[in-house]
Specification:
Helix content: 25-40%
Structural class: alpha+beta
Number of helices: 3
Number of domains: 1
Protein name: Antibiotic biosynthesis monooxygenase
GO molecular function: monooxygenase activity
Organism: Pseudooceanicola antarcticus
CATH architecture: 2-Layer Sandwich
CATH topology: Alpha-Beta Plaits
Keywords: Monooxygenase, Oxidoreductase
Radius of gyration: 14 Å
InterPro entries: ABM_dom, Dimeric_a/b-barrel
Number of strands: 4
Strand order of the largest sheet: 2-3-1-4
Distance between the termini: 23 Å
CATH class: Alpha Beta
Largest sheet: 4 strands, antiparallel
């Protein structure tokens, strides 16, 4: 599994959330996408965190080359107050605990 956490400050993220959330189903439908979420930071309301889980690195790289990635960047980048920090990890699932 390939995981990416993208963290960035934004001038005013709240008005953007409906547009970002509307784009999620198309990204989640991409080949190899296991999950894609937008998170907020309760201690820093001006920050957004994008959590990606992909089947593997090539699937994630396909997303980076996609029109969905370009459109999301065009939406988010103008309001970023600092460059995004992207932590990318290869992970092996150990166990899934529910309940």
């Amino acid at each position: 599994m390939y995981i990416a956490l993208v963290d960035f400050p934004h001038r005013d993220p709240v008005p953007l959330l409906p547009q970002v959330l509307a784009a999620l189903p198309q990204v989640r439908a991409m080949a190899g996408c296991l999950d894609y979420r937008v998170l907020s930071d309760s201690e820093a309301p001006d920050r957004l965190i994008l959590l990606h889980r992909w089947q593997d690195k090539p699937a994630f790289e396909g997303y980076l080359a996609s029109e969905h990635f370009a459109a999301l960047g065009a939406l988010l980048r103008p309001g970023m107050t600092a460059p995004p920090v992207s932590l990318r990890l290869e992970a092996q699932e150990d166990i899934l605990v529910t309940g």
